[in-house]
Amino acid sequence: MSTYREMAEIVRRRLAGGDISADFSIEPEEIYVRIAQISPYLLRGDFWENYRMDPANTMDATYYTTITSKPIHDKELDEYYVVLPGKPVMISGRGAPQVWYPHDRTWPFYYMEGGQGEMLAAAGITLEVGNSTNFWLETVSEDCLDSVRLYFDKLEDCLKLLKVKLVQIADINCINPDAPIGLPGHLEEPLILSLVNWFTEQDQTIEDSVPDNKNIPL
Fold this sequence. Notes:
The chain is of the alpha+beta class. 27% of the residues lie in helices and 24% in strands.
């Protein structure tokens, strides 16, 4: 299982076509951030019908992620939940994930804070605010990994897809370069290819924006 540092070295060598020169433009830290952004999709992509990041074409530590997912039914607890790619950034209750039905954006979803949702669900109480659905955030340990989930007290139709938009941050100060990425071996090559393709596209975009006539066809 590769670390962030080892993965960045592999990617930089592929981008450089061999040895890395002293003036190579892509720093390891840039690759660390991009790994933190896209590795959740490779690891848990089976949970989502679609996964989009905005901005998608620039390196930005703070970004929006929008997922499309079918709610999972926990039959033992009789609860429905959606797996998130990571913990959303929320400050003083602001920044809660936005949830909607793709087929009905008017149906209201209300976020509940501070364990209120878990306590009410455990007591078998459904807090109704008209025709609406309440949801809350939980982190569950699953197969030695933390699974960040949104739980719902009721859904209009458990078979329908949900869309969830959340704010995330990939802070370089919180990334240990020598920590394992956490991907199983068979997913490392897809990660490498994704990183190489993304940085190659970024490099081409930068070159094409330079007004020096080098990239203007005659």
